[in-house]
Design goal:
The complex is a heterodimer of chains A (159) and B (260). An eight-stranded mixed β-sheet of chain A has the order 7-1-4-3-2-6-5-8, with no helix packed on it. Chain A has two domains: 32 residues; 104 residues, no CATH class. Chain A is an alpha/beta fold and 159 residues long. The longest helix of chain A has 28 residues. In chain B, helix 4 runs antiparallel to helix 5 and helix 5 runs parallel beside helix 9. Chain B has one domain. The longest helix of chain B is centred in the middle third of the chain and has 39 residues. Chain B is an all-alpha fold. Classes of the chains: A alpha/beta (159), B mainly alpha (260).
Chain lengths: 159, 260
């Protein structure tokens, strides 16, 4: 009989450690942030060019992550990319004239949406649209502008 | 020439017949699930011999795999000055691939072969027919508890493998090589997702557990009841499990991570 009890204890210990490591993986290794799905609101912003932005890219205000990109779609009328973002409900004090820009973390890092709050009293609510946006910087465009600018300068010199 | 064709046809027919017997066997095992859940003592005994006895093998292997990942990852990443990304590299490779696959390979070698040998010997010594004589269904009494215990054990063992591996990477990377502890954990947090990475890893290990147990139990049940037959069946279990794990891993990875 004692043998069975010892065996059951060991099995219990094994299952407990196994479930413990599942929890460890969920909590410590990954970005599991509780059941935050319900407590959030969605805003969207239209960009001329969303560059390398991806679904799940972070949305930050002043360096603090407040949400994630949940969808990137193309507006067929204006040919703009519409970026939907899910913002955590605790960050509900963003003014209506907040501007959204797409930046890159470091030279080769991932792209993210940065929100810069404006000064209006009205606040952004669920499903509202950010009007003022700044597109992602595309390296080729910058290089192109740089080259053409140089050419113009050269031809001006010759004249 | 005709003889060659005849042999080829016979081989094909035999392998299809085996697959058919195996599928029927699997169906019978699954139908016995309810009866086993009513007698948890049977399950507990098998959890002990399948899960608890594999515990040390899995955790020690996980520790060493994590430590090697830490060393090799540091060596490569420091070339690019990106050794802060060591944590996310170690954790991603462990949770997505190495944990489920290496864990399952070790499990097939440790528990799968033992199960085949055990059941093959039961068959050789006519214990299975003896049970049928006593009107006890050997599939419900012997196979189903082992099957369920294996499917429960492997995901837990895989989680243990990955967790210990991450700690092993921490031991080498942070304690020995001096990677910043904060960035080791923070980059890991930022880089891994609960559903995309961890849940998919768990799904992989459940699938592997299912396949390993099916192969191991069926090879034992289907073994030729001689000492040579049992030894061949044991070999086939390990070889076929390894093939099945690696092949399925490719398919599952393509399904889960193909669009990222």
């Amino acid at each position: 009989m004692g043998n069975t009890v010892k065996q059951d204890t060991l099995v219990g210990l094994f299952v407990a450690i196994g479930i413990g490591s599942l929890f460890f993986m969920a909590m410590q290794i990954s970005n599991f942030s509780g059941f935050s799905d319900e407590k959030s609101y969605t805003i969207s912003a239209a960009f001329e060019n969303s560059g390398g932005l991806k679904v799940k890219s972070p949305v930050v205000v002043g360096g603090v992550r407040v949400g994630r990109v949940i969808a990137i779609t193309l507006d067929q009328k204006k040919f703009q990319s519409v970026v939907k973002m899910k913002i955590e409900a605790q960050y509900n004090q963003l003014p209506e004239d907040t501007t959204a820009s797409i930046f890159t973390a470091g030279l080769l890092g991932e792209q993210y949406v940065s929100l810069e709050p404006g000064g209006m009293d009205d606040l952004l609510s669920d499903n509202s649209m950010i009007e003022i946006t700044q597109s992602a910087l595309v390296l080729e465009e910058i290089i192109g502008q740089f080259l053409f600018k140089d050419k113009d300068a050269d031809s001006a010199k010759k004249e | 020439m005709i003889e060659l064709l005849r042999q080829l046809g016979e081989k094909t027919r035999h392998s299809f017949a085996k697959l058919g017997r195996g599928s029927f066997f699997l169906m019978q095992i699954i139908m016995g699930t309810m009866d086993v859940l009513r007698r948890p003592a049977l399950l507990s005994k098998q959890l002990y011999s399948i899960g608890v006895l594999s515990f040390f093998l899995i955790s020690i292997s996980g520790l060493f795999v994590g430590m090697v990942l830490g060393l090799q990852g540091y060596y490569i990443l420091s070339n690019f000055g990106a050794d802060e990304a060591l944590g996310v590299m170690v954790a991603t490779s462990l949770v997505r691939e190495l944990g489920p696959v290496v864990g399952a390979l070790l499990f097939a070698g440790r528990a799968g072969s033992a199960l085949t040998a055990e059941i093959g010997l039961m068959k050789a010594t006519e214990q299975l027919s003896g049970m049928e004589m006593m009107a006890i269904d050997p599939i419900k009494r012997i196979m189903t508890p082992r099957f369920l215990a294996g499917i429960i054990s492997l995901p837990l063992l895989t989680a243990l493998f990955s967790s210990v591996g991450v700690l092993g990477g921490h031991l080498v990377g942070v304690e020995m090589l001096g990677v910043d502890e904060g960035s080791y954990w923070a980059q890991m947090h930022a880089g891994l997702d609960v559903y995309d990475d961890i849940l998919n890893g768990v799904i992989k290990s459940v699938v592997f557990g299912f396949v390993i147990l099916w192969i191991a139990l069926f090879e034992g049940y289907d073994a030729i009841p001689t000492s040579e037959g049992v030894s061949r069946a044991t070999t086939r279990t390990v070889v076929n499990s390894a093939f099945a794990i690696l092949g399925l891993d490719f398919i599952l990875t393509a399904l889960m991570f193909g669009d990222i």
